[in-house]
Amino acid sequence: MAELTDKVAIVTGGASGIGAATARVLAREGAAVVVADINGAAAEAVAKEIAAAGGRATAVTVDVVEEEQIATMIATAVREFGGLDILHNNAALQTPASMSRDRAIIDMDAEHWDQIFRVNLRGYMLGAKHAIPAMLERGGGVVLNTASGTGVLGEPSRPAYGTSKAAVIGFTRNIAAQYGKQGVRSVALALGLVKTPALEAGLPPEVQEMMLTHHLTPRLADPEDIAEVVSFLASDRAYFITGCTIPVDGGFTAHTPSWADARRFHDAAMQA
Predict the structure, then answer these.
(1) Which of 124, 161, 179, 239 is catalytic?
(2) Does residue 1 sit within a domain?
(3) Considering the domain boundaries, does residue 182 fall inside one?
(4) What's the total number of domains in the chain?
(5) Helix pair 40-52, 17-28: axis angle to 10 deg
(6) pTM, full prediction
(7) How far apart are CA 40 and CA 199, in angstroms?
(8) How many Cα atoms sit within 13 Å of 104 on the Cβ side?
(9) Does 161 qualify as catalytic in the annotation?
């Protein structure tokens, strides 16, 4: 039997990339899935794909910063599938246009800063706020939050994005601390570079190669790599994992800053 049979899940940002891969994997493991995204047509396409493969899914159009829409998203899961067990807060503001404005702190547009936090943090808070009561009615559940290695490390750009992901990590601990005794777990996933279609289109190959040199794996992550971890953390096998951040980053945050350069020196010496 699939390990998520009889579970009901919501995946925000579920129309593409990590979210779409996660929706497919959760459905493969037996969960009924609400595919939620601001792009309703794309969410509907993912839900239809899951249904065509024999799974259970429905789509919801949602802007995660709008509380009424979040409430409707949760109500849809309860109405269509009988309750809610899993929320994967995954939607984030990470478009090329947004990233191009997320640069030097001294030049930061305060309104753009607020916009990133509205999506990346307020959206997660609203999801948890409305999901947890539904989970409690079923004896518990799990809130999984997509964070980032930039939430634990500084970098020369994207201060708003990285700081928002640091806040997601703190928020995750608070969910677990407040509702753990009632059966609700919460885990953040600190991701490295994931080869989503959006990343492939927006990040030049030479930059991807540069980033790969700082991973400890032979390749960068595919969305399915993240989805498999989400599926495990959503299952009862991960019962004792809560209030923490799991690095799912190919070792990007596991080494010293000089590791990539030291490796190049080592390889050159071995070839001499």
Answers:
(1) 161
(2) no
(3) yes
(4) 1
(5) 30
(6) 0.93
(7) 21
(8) 2
(9) yes
